[in-house]
Amino acid sequence: MNRLVPLLLVLNLLLQGGVVALLLLRRDAAPAAPAAPAAPAEEGAAAAPPDAAPQRIGPVVRLPDFIVHLRNPEIDRYARLSIELELASDADRQVVTAYMPKLRDALLAWLSDRTLEEMRGSEGMEFMKASMLRTIDENVPGRPVRAVYIADFVVQ
């Protein structure tokens, strides 16, 4: 019995090493798949040439952190979010700053109606960002915000 445990540990270690080596060898031997052409963002939009530089990120405004009680009848859940807004130009910084109280109120109302399940995973994050952008567009005139980025997201 005393010799069986170390023997099983060594055998387990050898099996794990073999699996890792096999995975590394298969990954190196697999040919790279050709990249699929990117679909245009809007209907009728021309596709960018493959050697075109990526679009530059515009000016960014960081909103004060949000701490929100999530909707859940069974248990109290709180979320803390840090949100950054990408603007179209530096001049839009003043517009967003002028509408900041209305913007925070609308985002807090939207966030407090969410459940943890709606926010979970990458699909939940994309849903949140798209919905927040719609909420911002409804509350700030002139579409000064290009994108919403979630810098921090913690649920407790």
Q: What would your notes on this structure say?
A:
With 156 residues, the protein is an alpha+beta fold. It has a domain at 60-155: Tetrahydropterin Synthase, Chain A, CATH 3.30.479. It is 44% helix and 18% strand. A hairpin with an 8-residue loop joins β2 (66-69) and β3 (78-87). α3 runs antiparallel to α5 (121-139). The model is unreliable at 32-46 (pLDDT under 50).
Sheet-strand content, in percent, reads 15-25%
**Helical/strand content category:** alpha+beta
Q: What's the CATH topology label of the domain at 60-155? A: Tetrahydropterin Synthase, Chain A
> How large, in whole angstroms, is the Cα Rg?
24 Å
Shape: elongated
Order of helices and strands, N to C?
HEEEHHHHE
CATH architecture descriptor text of the domain at 60-155: 2-Layer Sandwich
Short recap of the structure:
The chain has five helices and four strands. The chain is α+β, with helices and mostly antiparallel strands. It has a domain of 96 residues: Band 7 domain (Tetrahydropterin Synthase, Chain A, 2-Layer Sandwich).
Keywords:
156 residues; alpha+beta; four-stranded antiparallel sheet; 18% strand; elongated
Helix and strand arrangement:
Blueprint: H1 4-29, E1 60-62, E2 66-69, E3 78-87, H2 92-98, H3 100-112, H4 116-119, H5 121-139, E4 145-155
Antiparallel strand pairs: 1-3, 2-3, 3-4
Helix pairs in contact: 3-5
